[in-house]
Amino acid sequence: MSGFTETMQYTGSLMPVLLKGTLVAVELFAITLVLSLPLGLPIALGENSRLKVVKWICRAYVFFFRGTPLLLQLFFFYFFFPIYLNVHPTAFATAALTFVLNYAAYFAEIYRGGINGIDRGQYEAAQDLGLSRTQTMFGIIIPQTMRMVLPPISNEAIVLIKDTALVSCIAVADLMKVTRGIANRDVNMTAYLIAAAIYLIFTYVLTVYLRKLEVHFSKYDEQGEW
Amino acid sequence: MEENICKGTPILEMSSIIKDYSNCRALDNVDFSMHEGETVAIIGPSGSGKSTLLRCINCLTRITSGKITIGGKTFVDGRPGEESKKRHEAKYIPEKELLDIEGDTGMVFQHFNLFPHMTCLGNICYAPIKVKHIDKASAEKRGMDLLKLVGMEDKRDEYPGRLSGGQKQRVAIARGLAINPKIMLFDEPTSALDPEITGEVLSVMKKLAENRITMIVVTHEMGFAKEVADRVLFMDNGSIVEEGTPDEIFNDPKSDRLKSFLSSMLRA
Questions:
Q1: If you measure CA to CA, which chain A residue comes closest to B58?
Q2: Could you say which of A28, A204, B59, B63 is the most buried, measured as most Cβ atoms within 10 Å of its Cβ?
Q3: Do A225 and B127 touch (CB under 8 A)?
Q4: Domains plus CATH for chain A?
C-alpha cells in the first residue's frame, strides 16, 4: 500500500512539469494546424495552375517538404536563421515555422487530390451557367472537397500530435523533452507512462471531435450518391 | 428564303462546323440554325456526334473550325487550317466575353450535375446571384416559380443527394432556366433514368416546348421527338444526314441509314 502511495505522490510531483510540457505541445499543434491548413490551399491551387512557373514552384515546394525528414528540416531551420541570416528566433518559433511549412505541403497534396476527385460534370455545369473559374473553384469545387478531404486531414492531424515530440531534439521544452529529462534524472520509467497516457488522451479527444466534424460535413449526402 | 424572312434572324447559327479529335473527326462540316421558340430534337446512333454538336453550342467542346453565332453574337469564326495545331481548336473570343455567352445557354446533362452541397433552391439561385447579380430575394422568388413549374416546390430545402433521378433532373431543368437562357440544351436528359420515371421529366420538357422555350434535345426517346419537336435532325458519323418535321423523319425517311436506325429503334 505504501508503494502505491509513494508512486501516486511521485506522479503528483511530476504533473506540473509534464502539464507545462503538454501545453507547449498543444500550442505547437494548434499553431501548426491553424496556419498550415489554409496555407495548403494556395499551394494546391498553384500545383494545378496554368502558369508554368507557379506550377513548378509549388510542385518543387511539395517535393522538398514531403521528400525530406521533418527532423532534418527542423535542424536545418534551427541553424539556418542564426548562422546565415543572423536572425535569432526562439526555438519554439523555429519549430512552429518548420511544422507549418512541412504540414502545408501535406495538406496541399490532400487538397489537390480532393479537387481532382470532383467529377468533371460539376465544372461543366458551372461553366454552362456562366460562372468564372474563380467562382467555380470557390463556390462549387472547394466546398465539395471539404467532405472528401476531412478523413485524410484527420489522419494527418493525429500524426501531427505525435510529430510534436520531434521538437524535443531542439531546445523546445515540450512534453517529450521534459519527460525524458525526468526519466533520466530519476532513473524511473513512470514519466514515460504518464506522457504516453497524455498523448493518448490528446489523440482520443481529437478523434472524437473530428468524427463529429465528418458527420457535420456529410449532412447533404445521406444517400451517398451524388 | 421566304420562310426565313417570316421568322426573322435565327437565334442560333452554326456553319461549316468541324470538330477533330487527335484520332477522329467528330463533326464533319455541319450546318445548323434555329429560330426562337423552336424545339429541335437530335436523334442518331451513339457516337454520331449529337452530344458533341450540342456541347459546341455552349463551348464545353471547342470546335476545330467553323462559325457559331448565338443571338447575333459570334463567338468563334475559324477557317480550316487556322486553328492552333496542338489542340485542334479554332480561335475563340476572349474568355471574359465568352462567359457572357455561356450564360445564354442552359444545359441539362445526362447525369444531372447538380451541386450536391447546395439545396435545390440554392442550385437554382446560385448562378443568377453570382453571374447576373440579381439580389437574393428576387432570385429566390424566381427560383420558387421555376420549382413550381417543374413540380418540385416542396423540395426547395432538400439536398440533391436525397432526390430520385427524375426529381434531380427536374431541378436541373429549373436551374438551367433560372439564368434566362436564349436556348435550353438537353443532352440525353432521360438516359440515366429508370424507364418508369422518364415520363415526369419528358412532361416537364413538353410543357417548356408548349411555352415556346427554344430548346435543342438530344434524345433516344423517339416518342418525345415525334410528339414534341418542331424539327428533327438525324445525325450519323458526324454529319446531319436528314432533317425535317417529325412526320417527314419518322413516317417518310429518305436515307437508308435513317431507315435502318428507325427500324433498330423500333425493335428495341
A1: A128
A2: B63
A3: no
A4: 2-223 (1.10.3720.10)
Nearest CB partner across the interface for A139, out of B100, B126, B159: B126
Q: Which residue of B has its CA nearest to A146?
A: B117
**Chain segment A127-177, per-residue pLDDT in tens:** 999 999 999 999 999 999 988 899 999 999 999 999 999 999 998 888 999
Residues from chain B that touch A132, judged by Cβ atoms under 8 A, are 99
Q: Could you report the predicted ipTM of this complex, rounded to two decimals?
A: 0.90
Residues of chain B in Cβ contact (below 8 Å) with chain A: 58-60, 99-100, 102-103, 105-107, 109, 111-117, 126-127, 130-131, 159-162, 175-176, 179, 185
Which of A119, A132, A221 has the CB atom closest to B99's CB atom? Answer: A132
B177: closest chain A residue by CA: A129
- Cell numbers for A105, please give them: 505541403
- What secondary structure, in 3-state letters, does chain B show? CHHHHHHCCCCEEEEEEEEEECCEEEEEEEEEEECCCCEEEEECCCCCCHHHHHHHHCCCCCCCEEEEEECCEEEEEECCCCCECCCCECCECCHHHHHHHHCCEEEECCCCCCCCCCCHHHHHHHHHHHCCCCCHHHHHHHHHHHHHHCCCHHHCCCCHHHCCHHHHHHHHHHHHHHCCCCEEEEECCCCCCCHHHHHHHHHHHHHHHHCCCCEEEECCCHHHHHHHCCEEEEEECCEEEEEECHHHHHHCCCCHHHHHHHHHHHHC
Determine the pLDDT at residue B5.
42
Q: What is the pLDDT of residue B268?
A: 60
